[in-house]
Amino acid sequence: MSLEVVTGNQAAGCALSLAGEANRTARGAACGIYPITPQTEIVEYVAKFPFSKGRVVPVESEHSAMAVSMGASMSGARAFTASSSNGIAYMAENIMVAGYYRLPIVMVAVNRTLGPPWNIWADQGDTLMLRDFPWLQFYCENNQEVLDTTLLAFRLAEDKRILLPALTCMDAFIVSHTQTETALPDQSEVDRFLPDLDLPHRMHYDEARTLGGLAWPHEELSMRLEIDEAMKRVPGVYQECRESFEKIFGRDPGDMLQTFEVDDADQILIASGTIATTAREVIRHRREAGEKIGLVKIKMFRPFPEAALREACQSASRVGVLDRNYAAGTGGIFWQDTRAAFQGHRDDVLIQNYLTGLCGGDVTPDVVDDIITNLASRPEASEPVWIGVDTGRRTLQ
To answer: Which of 37, 221, 230, 271 is most buried by a 10 A CB count?
Structure first.
């Protein structure tokens, strides 16, 4: 293992490449690639990697990039790709198919605002539009978490109790293009962590088989139920993978939901990605001033950790959800799932949504400070509060 200064994209490319190489004694690895800002560095890294048994296939579109990865996975190879924004929208059909085929593909997504109008900055709307697809989703705070979560995603996705594809997500530019010290593993460590992929339903060249043919309603319903059962097993299997990761690499890749100062907190902020970094520092300072404030960082969004979230927020009477995303007409997506998690369990907690950082806007300590002040002063929850809107139609009041 070596400590190097790399970008989030390079950390992701390193993880994908080492994971692919780790399957060289089995069916090898394959990656369909297509560039898009700000993800391109990832596939450039993978394309230069000297795989012993693997292929990197440049294609004409993101839709085809996922198609190549699907074909490779169907044949038993360890498959992966990366994309962003409208590229993810273009490959959405195949993203959905990969999930229903139960293919353990790992895709790194650099969260970028969907256009038009065109925008290259951070917004989680591109991956969250896939929230109803049968994919695991993880949102990373920094470069090390991108690398560690990507490696863990392979082991989790390929576990025969799960067999579902996984998304590892990071904020555009804030993580993807920012260099920080990151512990890069050796190939031998990754080999120990990732066993050879043995996909039980893979295609064989000497055996005729049809994949994705017509199914009767009761047959397809059974398949949906199997996916639901696999999703429910994810938290337990995740913890097993986490323990194995720590033993081999010597560091904790982090829980699916991470808390800071929540035990006695009257107010709790819920955030994901890099917003959590800023929020944690603001809360640290306000704690020093005697305020009882805490933070919950949601790393795993799918499946949504409902029970763990309720437990983390059990002391709070006020919860503020900071969303770098927006579902038209209904507010922030993490907020929607947070409210659903509490429904029927607690009716004594005020849950307020703050839409901040959308379309790449900065989420500064001052912004978080204002949110905490606003949350504390609220007599009741209201419709989502927009922050950073120049027209002044939504303000912190």
So the answer is: 271
For residue 81, give the nearest of 189, 251, 90, 301 by alpha carbon.
90
* 354 DSSP β-pair partners: 322, 385
Any bridge partners for residue 294, and if so which? 268
CA distances to 77, 83, 156, 253 from 174, in Å: 32, 16, 27, 20
Q: Which residue has the tokens 């038993």?
A: 76
Give pTM, 2 decimals.
0.96
d(CA 49, CA 20): 10
pLDDT score, position 343: 95
Nearest to 198 by CA among 26, 79, 51: 26
Q: Which helix (H) or strand (E) holds 368?
A: helix 365-377
CA distances from 148 to 336, 343, 376 (A): 28, 33, 36
Return d(Cα 158, Cα 194) in angstroms, integer: 9
- Residue 134's pLDDT is 98
What is the band of 264 on the pLDDT scale with cuts at 50, 70, 90?
very high
CA separation, residue 73 to residues 34, 67, 94, 237 (Å): 18, 10, 13, 21
